[in-house]
């Protein structure tokens, strides 16, 4: 299922880049998110859902409620290649800098919604509480700080450099840790995430990804 959805997004982007039939449209963020920009960028909602909540089972992240500066930085990184993703590179490269900024602001202002299936349909067995330990205490024997030290209590996010991890897709979180570890993603501040990811094993990565996926986002106290 994850592969099929990924291919669907790739096909949508490729079709537009090869001269799709999108009509001329106003270049505003809401239109681009829903319909694309008519110049090669596919609708964001194809992969990230109309409410910006993402598609957990496919590993497509939530964008709604994220920090605007962080979102713009990621779009810029896709366009420049410091984040290696063939679909998003095509998408970001087809957007102007102004469009990337407008989309970042647009999604940041969308209300964040809880993603009930972020952890996947099959419960992750972690009897030793490995994920919670890494998230809240780290592993100092390998110079790995607690994730919460940068990403905030429960992974709610801190500023433009440390995005929310709470309620994000476990598939997505694990994929990003592996990308940092392999070096295919290298837009982390001071190489911090590359060091951390390279110090974790596959079991560590799966455990901490599922722990954060199970945390509430937005935090209960910020919900209406």
From TrEMBL:
Supply the Pfam families for this chain: Cytochrom_C (PF00034)
Tell me where in this chain the Cytochrome c domain is found.
31-111, 133-216
Keyword Phosphoprotein belongs to the record:
no
Q: Which domain of life is it from?
A: Bacteria
Q: Which residues form the signal peptide?
A: 1-26
Q: Which UniProt keywords apply?
A: Heme, Iron, Metal-binding, Signal
PANTHER family noted in UniProt: BLL4483 PROTEIN, CBB3-TYPE CYTOCHROME C OXIDASE SUBUNIT FIXP
What protein does this entry describe?
C-type cytochrome
